[in-house]
């Protein structure tokens, strides 16, 4: 039984990452943009785990742990910010948050 | 080693002492330092000349190298030959007398120590000029005396006309200096040295076809320098204005010493000039023209100092004509006698001005011969000397020149004779207007103190007897032989012209006082033309100065300074601001556009890194 080729994992990771980027750029809802950020992070996790399995090294796994911790922390902080924004601006449409301009 | 450097160094020490410490010192101390250093310098000159007798060859002293650049090596070199000896005696001797006079004349003026400091500084530069053994060191003295002339003409700097006159003297001199500089550059290119001995020896050996062109160019440019310093056409305009300075300054700088530097320089370079006949013709023509024209202007002036100023320009013209026709010894002889009687004329005029409380207009003087007899007597000595009355000094020197000129061109001789007649006329006009008739002024004329009258007496003796000094004989060693036929007829003509001038002045100003005004009235336009100095200053103003000012304003100031330089500086600021204006458009506040920029940026960085060779 042949193993799944590495390239498939990487292509999947790339596709997921691109979907994340596209979603981040094209969606208006703040929560949705956050979910896309998480998607990008997890795509990267996937590619790291795939590499680490291929070369039988543990580095990829360990780094994935780091990324997950950071993602969690970042999600916590980010959601706190979003709650504050909602309380003040009563909207989640990111286009309306444009007062920091020239 | 005669320690020639002491000769200029002593007045320099006087300048430093009086300049730095003079403010708080008493007049006696300032006098002792100023007069003492010049007296010591004079004594050292005499001692050196006595030691070096008979001085057939030049005595050279070198004090080290100034600089070396390529093939050119310039050293601090002083040399004494017979020409230098004559100049040294005149500069230090007459300078000493004028310093003594100035202690009396300036006694009631402010800035006493500053005056004597500048006067000593002038002596330092003039002595450097005379002792120099190469063109560059001579030029140092040349420029330095120009500087001192500016400082001393503008001595009463709070008076606008005085400071303007100082500027004029310096700027016009600079134009001459430019010609001198170009001549020095040509000398360096042609001879690869600036030392007198080397240049003159090389010039003697040059074949005629090669030398004529370049030597003519060099000599013409040197003469441009001389026209500036020795007040010839076209650069004489500063000298009449220079009368704004105190009278001792007019006597020392603008009669006896500085203005003779041009004549001295041409005489020193006689080797070059003899190889450039065209240049010598130009020199003679300009000198004669200057002598004649300025004598005509001197006929009409009413300010006693202006009369003598134009007289100086005219007499300098005589000296320039002399060196222009090759009679170098005669030119220097006239330089010496002129130093005596012109210094006396100016110092005497100063005594007169001092007597009548500052008045300088001849129309407001008169009848002073009873009131200031000593001044009158000494001024008469100077007047007969300058008029060429035998056997006084002016007769001998002027006659030598006129005889030499006659050899060259009889036409020039007759112009010179007419000028001599005019010289006698305007000098005696001034004497008669000031000392004869009734007193037309408002002051109480009184004789001057001994510090002023004693130098007048010494100079009077020199003016009377100076003709018997064997100057041409002494200088015969230095200059090539110049045979001039001694014709009693020509001598009689020139003496006759002088006596006729005196007689005419007597008629106009003593016998029939109103005649002068009637004649000038009937000559109308011609009189106005001459009285206004042929409107030369106005012509220069229109032709040179106004265009220079307008050109500077429009091109240099508005065009370059404001347009280009300020434009570049301000423009840099404007461009920076415009760039900023462009870049701030990125700051739109739109989060999605920021995200897009981040994406593009990171892609760009990745591609660039790949293209430039990867991360590692």
Provide key terms for this protein:
heterodimer, A: 102 residues, mainly alpha, Helix Hairpins, 3 helices, elongated, B: 616 residues, two-stranded antiparallel sheet, globular
Structure description:
The complex is a heterodimer of chains A (102) and B (616). In chain A, 75% of the residues lie in helices and 0% in strands. Chain A has helices spanning 6-26, 30-54, 59-89. In chain A, helix 1 (6-26) packs antiparallel against helix 2 and helix 2 (30-54) runs antiparallel to helix 3 (59-89). The longest helix of chain A is centred in the last third of the chain and has 31 residues, at 59-89. The mean pLDDT of chain A is 92. By secondary structure, chain B is mainly alpha-helical. Chain B contains 24 helices and 2 strands. In chain B, strands 1-2 form a two-stranded antiparallel ribbon. In chain B, strand 1 and strand 2 (72-80) form a beta hairpin. The model of chain B has no long low-confidence stretch (mean pLDDT 89). Chain A binds chain B through residues 21, 24-25, 94-95, 97-102, and chain B through 584-585, 587-592, 595-596, 599.
Written as H for each helix and E for each strand, in order along the chain, the element string of chain B is: HHEEHHHHHHHHHHHHHHHHHHHHHH
What is the mean predicted local confidence, pLDDT of chain A? 92
Rounded mean pLDDT of chain B is: 89
Using a beta-carbon cutoff below 8 angstroms, give the protein chain pair with the largest interface and the number of residues from each chain.
A-B, 11 and 11 residues
What is the C-alpha radius of gyration of chain B, as a whole number of Å? 30 Å
Radius of gyration of chain A: 17 Å
Low-confidence stretches of chain A: none
- Report how far the terminal alpha carbons of chain B are from each other: 79 Å
What shape does the CA trace of chain B take?
globular
Query: What is the count of helical runs of chain A?
Result: 3
Q: How many strand units of chain A?
A: 0
Q: Approximately how much beta-strand content do the residues of chain A carry? A: under 5%
Instruction: Report low-confidence residues of chain B grouped into runs of 5 or more.
Output: none
CATH class annotation of the domain at 28-96 in chain A: Mainly Alpha
Total DSSP helices of chain B: 24
Strand content of chain B: under 5%
Amount of helix of chain B: over 70%
Annotated CATH architecture of the domain at 28-96 in chain A: Orthogonal Bundle
């Amino acid at each position: 039984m042949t193993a799944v080729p590495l390239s498939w994992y990487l292509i999947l990771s790339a596709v997921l990452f691109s979907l994340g980027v596209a979603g981040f750029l094209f969606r208006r809802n703040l929560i949705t943009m956050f979910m896309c950020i998480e998607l990008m992070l997890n795509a990267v996790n996937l590619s790291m785990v795939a590499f680490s399995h291929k070369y039988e090294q543990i580095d990829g796994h360990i780094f994935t742990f780091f990324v997950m911790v950071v993602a969690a922390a970042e999600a916590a902080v980010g959601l706190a910010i979003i709650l504050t924004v909602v309380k003040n601006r009563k909207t989640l449409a990111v286009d309306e948050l444009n007062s920091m301009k020239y | 080693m005669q320690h020639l450097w002491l000769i200029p160094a002593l007045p320099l020490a006087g300048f430093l002492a009086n300049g730095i410490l003079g403010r708080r010192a008493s007049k006696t101390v300032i006098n002792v330092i100023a007069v003492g250093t010049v007296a010591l310098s004079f004594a050292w000159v005499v001692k050196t000349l006595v030691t070096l007798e008979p001085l057939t060859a030049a005595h050279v002293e070198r004090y080290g190298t100034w600089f070396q650049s390529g093939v050119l090596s310039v050293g601090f070199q002083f040399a004494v030959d017979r020409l230098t000896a004559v100049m040294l005696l005149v500069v230090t001797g007459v300078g000493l007398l004028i310093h003594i006079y100035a202690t009396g004349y300036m006694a009631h003026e402010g800035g006493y120590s500053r005056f004597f400091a500048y006067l000593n500084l002038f002596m330092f530069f003039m002595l450097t000029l005379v002792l120099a053994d190469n063109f560059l060191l001579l030029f140092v003295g040349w420029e330095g005396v120009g500087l001192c002339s500016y400082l001393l003409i503008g001595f009463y700097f709070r008076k606008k006309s005085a400071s303007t006159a100082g500027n004029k003297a310096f700027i016009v001199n600079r134009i001459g200096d430019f010609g001198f500089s170009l001549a020095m550059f040509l000398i360096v290119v042609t001879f690869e040295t600036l030392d007198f001995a080397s240049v003159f020896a090389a010039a003697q050996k040059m074949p005629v076809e090669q030398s004529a062109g370049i030597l003519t160019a060099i000599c013409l440019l040197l003469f441009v320098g001389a026209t500036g310093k020795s007040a010839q056409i076209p650069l004489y305009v500063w000298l009449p204005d220079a009368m704004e300075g105190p009278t001792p300054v007019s006597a020392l700088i603008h009669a006896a010493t500085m203005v003779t530097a041009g004549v001295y320089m041409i005489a020193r370079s006689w080797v070059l000039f003899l190889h450039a006949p065209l240049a010598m013709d130009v020199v003679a023509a300009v000198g004669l023209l200057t002598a004649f024209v300025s004598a005509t202007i001197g006929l009409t002036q009413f300010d006693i100092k202006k009369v003598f100023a134009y007289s100086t320009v005219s007499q300098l013209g005589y000296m320039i004509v002399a060196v222009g026709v090759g009679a170098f010894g005669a030119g220097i002889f006239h330089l010496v006698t002129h130093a005596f009687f012109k210094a006396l004329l100016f110092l005497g005029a100063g005594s007169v001005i001092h007597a009548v409380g500052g008045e300088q207009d001849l129309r407001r003087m008169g009848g002073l011969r009873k009131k200031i007899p000593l001044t009158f007597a000494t001024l008469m000595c100077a007047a007969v000397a300058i008029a060429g009355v035998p056997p006084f000094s002016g007769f001998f020197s002027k006659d030598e020149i006129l005889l030499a000129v006659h050899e060259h061109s009889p036409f020039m001789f007759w112009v010179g004779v007419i000028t001599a007649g005019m010289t006698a006329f305007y000098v005696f006009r001034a004497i008669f207007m000031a000392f004869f008739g009734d007193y037309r002024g408002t002051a109480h004329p009184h004789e001057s103190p001994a510090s002023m009258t004693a130098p007048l007496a010494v100079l009077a003796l020199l003016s009377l007897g100076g003709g018997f000094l064997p100057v041409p004989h002494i200088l015969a060693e230095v200059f090539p032989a110049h045979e001039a036929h001694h014709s009693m007829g020509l001598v009689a003509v020139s003496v006759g012209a002088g006596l006729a001038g005196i007689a005419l002045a007597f008629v106009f100003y003593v016998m029939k006082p109103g005649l002068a005004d009637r004649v000038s009235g009937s000559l109308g336009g011609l009189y106005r033309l001459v009285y206004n100095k042929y409107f030369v200053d106005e012509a220069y103003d229109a032709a040179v100065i106004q265009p220079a000012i307008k050109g500077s304003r429009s091109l240099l100031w508005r065009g370059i300074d404001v347009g280009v330089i300020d434009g570049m500086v301000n423009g840099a600021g404007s461009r920076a601001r415009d760039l900023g204006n462009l870049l701030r458009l990125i700051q739109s506040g739109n989060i999605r556009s920021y995200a897009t920029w981040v994406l593009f940026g990171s892609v760009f960085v990745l591609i660039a890194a790949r293209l430039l060779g990867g991360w590692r």
